[in-house]
Amino acid sequence: MAQYRLQQLAEHVSGRLRGNPEATVESIAALDKAQPNQLSFISNAKFRERLQQSVAGCLLVSETDVEFCHADSNLIVVNDPYIAYALIAQLMDTTPQAASGIAKSAVLSPSVILGDNVSIGANAVIEDGVVLGDNVVIGAGCFVGKNSKIGAGTQLWANVTVYHEVEIGQDCLIQAAAVIGADGFGYANDKGKWIKIPQRGQVIIGNRVEIGACTCIDRGALDATIIEDNVIIDNLCQIAHNVHIGSGTAVAGGVIMAGSLTVGKYCLIGGASVINGHMSICDGVTVTGMSMVMRPITEPGVYSSGIPLQSNKDWRKTAALTMNISEMNRRLKALEREHGKA
């Protein structure tokens, strides 16, 4: 296992080292489990009591945490320990690439344009007119459809499906079994008979976008579905046709976005939320988990809906009251009218 000098790590995160610069660590562990060959960190003040007892080889701390540490502990003092942890975790990351070299069983059209150092895994299929940038990695069993473009440094894990004429930017990461560019849910109803509307738009994905496993991003009906730069989308999300997600937005697992929705920049969408289509959410909005968003949001802030967990007995009472809310409202208005006449 590789070893990392503390001086090296401090320089990597622009931190101030207190302790032995020649000491080494091999990996990262939780604060209460880290051993002398490991590094740990604190990002929440409620865990400060654990700092004195930690035997970690080095601790990532903020300036305000230093006084709570043992005098003999090696420390790297930074502005934000959590960001420093993320940077060091990247440095120590041992996750393999989804593919290395071009497998003999991969099927590439003669018209594919390959950049330098492209890797394509076993049984992948790359169709006519595809352009793969430098250092692109295509995992085993992937499909990349006609005339799609994938930018430099982007990696697709196994069994990702990219339909035709999709554009994916640079340094993106798409996890296994994601589907990019499938048909949007577009149909006309002719007296009970569903008539499919061909989905002619693209999916356009910016740079440094991450898309979770089994997430589906549908192509647009006429115009493109657009995911801007630096967006992160978790597993098992459904992004419908013509959705537009602004840069820096994070979408947690299980979110469903209906068609022609526009989500602003730097929004946080909590897991299992459902968002109506044909409307907009402005920049800087946080939607907490399991929310149902049925109307546009025009002011930044934190928004919630749904009923918190209750015992089944209490939930039944809440449900019964909810079912009677119309009658309660009618009676309240009658009382208000009666009081107004008195």
TrEMBL record:
Residues 23-91 form the UDP-3-O-[3-hydroxymyristoyl] glucosamine N-acyltransferase non-repeat region domain. It comes from the Bacteria. The active site is at residue 241. Its EC number is 2.3.1.191. Pathway: Bacterial outer membrane biogenesis; LPS lipid A biosynthesis. Keywords: Acyltransferase, Lipid A biosynthesis, Lipid biosynthesis, Lipid metabolism, Repeat, Transferase. GO terms for molecular function: N-acyltransferase activity; UDP-3-O-[(3R)-3-hydroxyacyl]-glucosamine N-acyltransferase activity. It is an enzyme of class 2 (transferase). GO terms for cellular component: membrane. The keyword Metal-binding does not apply. GO terms for biological process: lipid A biosynthetic process. It catalyses: a UDP-3-O-[(3R)-3-hydroxyacyl]-alpha-D-glucosamine + a (3R)-hydroxyacyl-[ACP] = a UDP-2-N,3-O-bis[(3R)-3-hydroxyacyl]-alpha-D-glucosamine + holo-[ACP] + H(+). Gene3D superfamilies: 1.20.5.170, Hexapeptide repeat proteins, MurE/MurF, N-terminal domain. HAMAP family: LpxD. Homotrimer. Belongs to the transferase hexapeptide repeat family. LpxD subfamily. Catalyzes the N-acylation of UDP-3-O-acylglucosamine using 3-hydroxyacyl-ACP as the acyl donor. Is involved in the biosynthesis of lipid A, a phosphorylated glycolipid that anchors the lipopolysaccharide to the outer membrane of the cell. This is UDP-3-O-acylglucosamine N-acyltransferase. It comes from Testudinibacter aquarius.
